[in-house]
Input
Amino acid sequence: AQSVAQPEDQVNVAEGNPLTVKCTYSVSGNPYLFWYVQYPNRGLQFLLKYITGDNLVKGSYGFEAEFNKSQTSFHLKKPSALVSDSALYFCAVRDIFPSGTYKYIFGTGTRLKVLA
Amino acid sequence: DSGVTQTPKHLITATGQRVTLRCSPRSGDLSVYWYQQSLDQGLQFLIQYYNGEERAKGNILERFSAQQFPDLHSELNLSSLELGDSALYFCASSVEEGNPSTDTQYFGPGTRLTVL
Output
């Protein structure tokens, strides 16, 4: 079965520094990988996804993610963190239910705190 | 704005009561997913509907039920409410048809349910 893991519950980074939020995956076949961000008391917002092609995927708000097949990782990155990036980040992988419809499997989330 | 709408935004009720949460998917999306997020917890998948039919069930209690109507909006019914049902309930939608590389799940803003 497909799965993702987010090994860090929380990541702290100083404003202006680069940030990385880690995600590793376990899939059979080609991975369809996603990153979402959740601000307090808000729904999850789609940031970016990897389907195929270029290993560096660019997304919203200056975020990008690097797909690494050999390390089975899909880490979220940003060159320069902003205090406003402080939020809960979820990695997800798309699988298929027995019924044939798509199933989205989410990691446990990583809380990013950007310190001024 | 993801295009997924949920009402109400907040709901406060008493134990033993029944409530209905409503979700309208993005225009053109056929698939609706319901998730529960308890305080500082990850997302728990509850149930999925596709074009009016139930397609997958997750960790949904027997006291909970859902349906998707011909106009594709969905309702999640929670009955015999308990204190532990207090959570954020999210609806998400996706197209589920066409090119799989384009299918992405988009989330509504959520309904915060408080059971007193």
